[in-house]
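WARN no homologs supplied; continuing
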Amino acid sequence: MNYEEAKKRVLAAQELLNEQATSRAKFESIRTLIRGINPRIDKALSASSKALTDLTKLQKGEVIELAAEHLPEDTDENKKRKKTLLLFIKFWKDLKGEVARVQTELEKGRHGQSSAQTIGRIASFAKGPLGLITLVAVGIAYLKFSEVEVIIKNRGCEPLQPIISMPVRIPGLSLPANPIPDGGQDSAFLPPVTFSVDGTRGNVVRLHAFGLKLDYELGGRDIDVVLNGESLIGKQSTADFGSQKQHELLVTCS
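OK structure emitted
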């Protein structure tokens, strides 16, 4: 799911959440739109679904008015129905709040905020082991929305071979599947994070991030790898792929 699709889904869900009445069918439409975008939204969806199930057992008709002020409390049944409705309305408001918060943070991330800042805000108040899982999940979701392009160009080298295997799948990471011939180019799509680069290993350049090490074999020692005008060979450096939306990686052979 890319950023634009996520934005459309969140906005569509907000419109449904802002209506004065709902139903099981409408709630399922909301869940289909936004499930999986953010773990706190998923938690709010789960709580709302359970409360809605309890309410429909007492509700007459499909339409549920999201107001309880004028409901009668003259019988035990009416008291129970009002209490259940109030609980559902609480979870409904929580869900609205989570959707609005994520929409705000996605907009901030789209307009120049760093990925770390955005992820930090979306995952705020995430505490303990479950909070850590939340933070990781939110980070992965955000990386899906904000990948950057790296244009890889071959100038004078044997065909550049793709990385044939990955230890794990990284969301937002898509590498060329075919060799890049001399004079050719292809694009890789990476998450907007900073990689540590080790260019001191002879004919191997190592990228390090997320605790993973990605080795790229150059195929010879008379090869230079230049990222955005700066050589990566013969030193240790960093590559900040979050600094701009598009980068150029030039591989040259003498």
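Confidence is low (pLDDT under 50) at residues 114-138.
OK
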